[in-house]
Design brief:
The protein contains five helices and no strands. It is an all-alpha fold and 154 residues long. The chain has one domain: Ferritin (Up-down Bundle), CATH 1.20.1260. Helix 1 packs antiparallel against helix 4. It is elongated. InterPro entries: DPS_DNA-bd, DPS_DNA-bd_CS, Ferritin-like, Ferritin-like_SF, Ferritin_DPS_dom. GO terms for molecular function: ferric iron binding; oxidoreductase activity, acting on metal ions. It comes from Dechloromonas denitrificans. Belongs to the Dps family.
Amino acid sequence: MDIGISKKDREKIAEGLSHLLADSFTLYLKTHNFHWNVKGPMFNTLHVMFMDQYTELWNALDLIAERIRALGVAAPGTYREFAKLTVIQESEGVPTATEMIKQLVAGQEAVTKTARGIFPLVDKAGDEPTADLLTQRMQIHEKNAWMLRSLLED
Protein backbone atom coordinates (compact mmCIF):
# COMPACT_ATOMS: atom_id res chain seq x y z
CA MET A 1 0.00 0.00 0.00
CA ASP A 2 1.51 3.33 -1.07
CA ILE A 3 -0.73 6.35 -0.39
CA GLY A 4 2.01 8.65 0.90
CA ILE A 5 1.54 7.79 4.58
CA SER A 6 3.89 5.32 6.26
CA LYS A 7 2.49 2.03 7.53
CA LYS A 8 3.38 3.01 11.10
CA ASP A 9 1.49 6.32 10.80
CA ARG A 10 -1.48 4.65 9.10
CA GLU A 11 -1.69 2.15 11.96
CA LYS A 12 -1.48 4.89 14.63
CA ILE A 13 -4.15 6.97 12.88
CA ALA A 14 -6.37 3.88 12.52
CA GLU A 15 -5.91 3.17 16.22
CA GLY A 16 -7.15 6.67 17.04
CA LEU A 17 -10.03 6.28 14.61
CA SER A 18 -10.90 2.96 16.27
CA HIS A 19 -11.36 4.83 19.55
CA LEU A 20 -13.50 7.38 17.72
CA LEU A 21 -15.58 4.56 16.21
CA ALA A 22 -16.05 2.94 19.61
CA ASP A 23 -17.03 6.23 21.23
CA SER A 24 -19.42 7.00 18.39
CA PHE A 25 -21.05 3.56 18.55
CA THR A 26 -21.42 3.72 22.32
CA LEU A 27 -22.94 7.20 22.11
CA TYR A 28 -25.23 5.98 19.30
CA LEU A 29 -26.47 3.12 21.49
CA LYS A 30 -26.93 5.35 24.54
CA THR A 31 -28.80 7.99 22.52
CA HIS A 32 -31.07 5.38 20.93
CA ASN A 33 -31.77 3.86 24.35
CA PHE A 34 -32.70 7.30 25.71
CA HIS A 35 -34.92 7.93 22.67
CA TRP A 36 -36.88 4.78 23.55
CA ASN A 37 -37.11 5.49 27.27
CA VAL A 38 -37.39 9.26 27.72
CA LYS A 39 -40.48 10.54 29.51
CA GLY A 40 -41.74 13.70 31.11
CA PRO A 41 -42.90 17.15 29.99
CA MET A 42 -40.18 17.44 27.33
CA PHE A 43 -40.90 13.98 25.90
CA ASN A 44 -41.68 14.99 22.33
CA THR A 45 -38.81 17.47 22.03
CA LEU A 46 -36.28 15.02 23.43
CA HIS A 47 -37.68 12.00 21.60
CA VAL A 48 -37.27 13.79 18.25
CA MET A 49 -33.90 15.36 19.13
CA PHE A 50 -32.49 12.03 20.26
CA MET A 51 -33.72 10.38 17.05
CA ASP A 52 -32.00 13.03 14.93
CA GLN A 53 -28.78 12.56 16.88
CA TYR A 54 -28.71 8.76 16.88
CA THR A 55 -29.53 8.68 13.16
CA GLU A 56 -26.62 11.01 12.43
CA LEU A 57 -24.32 8.90 14.63
CA TRP A 58 -25.42 5.71 12.89
CA ASN A 59 -24.52 7.16 9.50
CA ALA A 60 -21.16 8.39 10.80
CA LEU A 61 -20.12 4.91 11.93
CA ASP A 62 -19.73 3.79 8.33
CA LEU A 63 -17.63 6.83 7.42
CA ILE A 64 -15.25 6.25 10.32
CA ALA A 65 -14.94 2.49 9.75
CA GLU A 66 -14.40 2.95 6.03
CA ARG A 67 -11.61 5.46 6.69
CA ILE A 68 -9.91 2.90 8.95
CA ARG A 69 -10.20 0.36 6.11
CA ALA A 70 -8.88 2.87 3.56
CA LEU A 71 -5.78 3.16 5.76
CA GLY A 72 -5.29 -0.60 5.40
CA VAL A 73 -6.33 -1.61 8.91
CA ALA A 74 -9.24 -3.77 10.08
CA ALA A 75 -12.00 -1.79 11.80
CA PRO A 76 -13.24 -3.00 15.20
CA GLY A 77 -16.83 -4.18 15.10
CA THR A 78 -17.84 -6.05 18.25
CA TYR A 79 -19.30 -4.94 21.57
CA ARG A 80 -16.25 -6.42 23.30
CA GLU A 81 -13.83 -4.36 21.18
CA PHE A 82 -15.91 -1.20 21.53
CA ALA A 83 -16.14 -1.63 25.31
CA LYS A 84 -12.33 -1.78 25.52
CA LEU A 85 -11.84 1.27 23.27
CA THR A 86 -14.55 3.71 24.42
CA VAL A 87 -14.35 6.31 27.17
CA ILE A 88 -18.15 6.67 27.32
CA GLN A 89 -19.81 4.94 30.25
CA GLU A 90 -23.02 2.96 29.88
CA SER A 91 -26.07 4.18 31.74
CA GLU A 92 -27.59 2.17 34.57
CA GLY A 93 -31.36 1.82 34.53
CA VAL A 94 -33.52 4.57 33.08
CA PRO A 95 -32.32 8.02 34.14
CA THR A 96 -34.54 11.08 34.33
CA ALA A 97 -34.82 13.23 31.21
CA THR A 98 -32.47 15.81 32.74
CA GLU A 99 -29.91 13.14 33.59
CA MET A 100 -30.20 11.76 30.04
CA ILE A 101 -29.40 15.21 28.67
CA LYS A 102 -26.39 15.56 31.01
CA GLN A 103 -25.05 12.16 30.00
CA LEU A 104 -25.49 12.92 26.31
CA VAL A 105 -23.71 16.27 26.69
CA ALA A 106 -20.81 14.42 28.30
CA GLY A 107 -20.90 11.83 25.50
CA GLN A 108 -20.89 14.43 22.74
CA GLU A 109 -18.00 16.23 24.43
CA ALA A 110 -16.08 12.95 24.85
CA VAL A 111 -16.38 12.13 21.15
CA THR A 112 -15.18 15.64 20.31
CA LYS A 113 -12.13 15.22 22.56
CA THR A 114 -11.32 11.83 21.05
CA ALA A 115 -11.48 13.29 17.53
CA ARG A 116 -9.39 16.31 18.53
CA GLY A 117 -6.76 14.05 20.11
CA ILE A 118 -6.04 12.35 16.78
CA PHE A 119 -5.23 15.62 14.98
CA PRO A 120 -1.52 15.94 15.87
CA LEU A 121 -0.68 12.60 14.25
CA VAL A 122 -2.98 13.26 11.29
CA ASP A 123 -1.34 16.66 10.71
CA LYS A 124 2.17 15.21 11.01
CA ALA A 125 1.33 12.46 8.50
CA GLY A 126 -0.34 14.85 6.05
CA ASP A 127 -3.54 12.79 6.15
CA GLU A 128 -5.99 15.37 4.83
CA PRO A 129 -8.92 12.95 4.29
CA THR A 130 -8.83 11.93 7.96
CA ALA A 131 -8.40 15.59 9.02
CA ASP A 132 -11.51 16.45 7.00
CA LEU A 133 -13.49 13.61 8.62
CA LEU A 134 -12.35 14.66 12.10
CA THR A 135 -13.24 18.30 11.47
CA GLN A 136 -16.74 17.34 10.34
CA ARG A 137 -17.24 15.04 13.32
CA MET A 138 -16.11 17.70 15.80
CA GLN A 139 -18.41 20.32 14.28
CA ILE A 140 -21.40 18.00 14.61
CA HIS A 141 -20.60 16.87 18.17
CA GLU A 142 -19.86 20.39 19.40
CA LYS A 143 -23.17 21.59 17.96
CA ASN A 144 -25.07 18.65 19.48
CA ALA A 145 -23.47 19.27 22.87
CA TRP A 146 -24.41 22.96 22.69
CA MET A 147 -28.03 22.13 21.77
CA LEU A 148 -28.33 19.61 24.58
CA ARG A 149 -26.58 21.89 27.06
CA SER A 150 -29.01 24.70 26.23
CA LEU A 151 -31.86 22.51 27.48
CA LEU A 152 -30.29 22.51 30.94
CA GLU A 153 -30.25 26.30 31.27
CA ASP A 154 -33.04 28.24 32.95
